[in-house]
UniProtKB/TrEMBL annotation:
Gene3D superfamilies: Ankyrin repeat-containing domain. This is Ankyrin. It comes from Crinalium epipsammum PCC 9333. It comes from the Bacteria. PROSITE patterns: ANK_REP_REGION, ANK_REPEAT. The chain crosses the membrane at residues 6-25.
């Protein structure tokens, strides 16, 4: 698994795992954040190497699992640059 360190608010350092996925559904943390509308979480994951083109077992990317247009636009921008 790919781990990267980051500083949160300059107070503490934590390790974040950006390649976690659900074995049965294939959903990644990006899929979960997209479906939940967690824009800041998406930005954090993307900044630390999460793959916006990852597909779940249904063949859907995180962008295809949300109806939130802001989230879709954010994921599209990152998909176009990778």
């Amino acid at each position: 698994m790919q781990k990267k360190n980051l500083s949160l608010l300059g107070i503490t350092t934590v390790a974040i795992v950006v390649k976690i996925f659900n074995y049965w559904t294939g959903n990644t943390l990006l899929h979960a954040a997209a479906r939940s509308g967690k824009k800041e979480t998406l930005k954090l994951l993307l900044a630390h190497g999460a793959n916006p083109k990852a597909k779940n077992t249904e063949g859907k990317t995180p962008r295809e699992t949300t109806s939130n247009q802001d989230i879709q636009a954010l994921l599209k921008r990152h998909s176009d640059t990778k």
